[in-house]
């Protein structure tokens, strides 16, 4: 049995990706229609000599607005294409093989852990009064702040 460990959603299942793509396409369509409609209306009116102030002076800013909306849509489509390319370049995680549990087998005993040898210190060595260790510990305290260093215990 294979288990998919990749918890991230794919790009084609991302609502924000599709929202970006659809709104960008709609923006391109609306901007292109505004530019085309106002340009043809203004050009026809100027050629026939029936142009009014509204067709000429209002048509120009509407063409600019249409061009801005069209440009925003093109940028959105380019971002969507960039996201698609970036997702394609990312390596996919390999699926992890999961073995089924065999409920009929006997449990195996846990491996035995070997005991760790403790280094011999002044307290465990059986010195007569341990005053050397106390003096050495007092001399070490404050310099390193480590109990292991102060009592010369090997820490692994």
Walk me through this protein's architecture.
The protein is 57% helix and 3% strand. The chain is mainly α. It is elongated, with a radius of gyration of 39 Å.
Give the secondary structure arrangement, pairings included:
Elements lengths: L1 E2 L11 H34 L4 H37 L6 E2 L24 H4 L5 H10 L6 H4 L6
Antiparallel strand pairs: 1-2
Could you name the key traits of this structure?
156 residues; mainly alpha; two-stranded antiparallel ribbon; 5 helices; 2 strands; 57% helix
Low-confidence stretches: 1-7
Q: Give the H and E element order.
A: EHHEHHH
Helix content: 55-70%
Overall strand count: 2
**Rg to the nearest angstrom?**
39 Å
Which shape, going by the Cα principal axes?
elongated
Name the assembly state: single chain
Structural class: mainly alpha
Residue share in β-strands: under 5%
Mean pLDDT: 78
Number of helices: 5
Strand order in the sheet with the most strands: 1-2
The rounded distance between the terminal residues' Cα atoms is 41 Å
Main sheet attributes: strand count, strand direction, barrel closure = 2 strands, antiparallel
């Amino acid at each position: 049995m294979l288990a998919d460990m990749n918890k991230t959603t794919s790009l084609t299942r991302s609502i924000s990706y599709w929202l970006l793509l659809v709104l960008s396409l709609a923006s391109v369509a609306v901007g292109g229609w505004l530019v085309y409609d106002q340009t043809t209306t203004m050009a026809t009116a100027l050629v026939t000599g029936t142009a009014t102030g509204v067709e000429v002076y209002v048509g120009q800013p509407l063409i600019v607005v249409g061009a801005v909306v069209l440009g925003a849509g093109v940028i959105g489509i380019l971002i969507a294409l960039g996201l698609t390319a970036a997702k394609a370049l990312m390596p996919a995680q390999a699926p992890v093989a999961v073995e089924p549990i065999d409920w009929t087998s006997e449990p195996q005993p846990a491996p035995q852990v070997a005991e760790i040898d403790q280094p011999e210190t002044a307290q465990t060595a059986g010195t007569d009064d341990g005053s050397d260790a106390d003096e050495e510990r007092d001399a070490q305290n404050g310099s390193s702040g480590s109990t292991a260093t102060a009592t010369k215990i090997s820490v692994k």
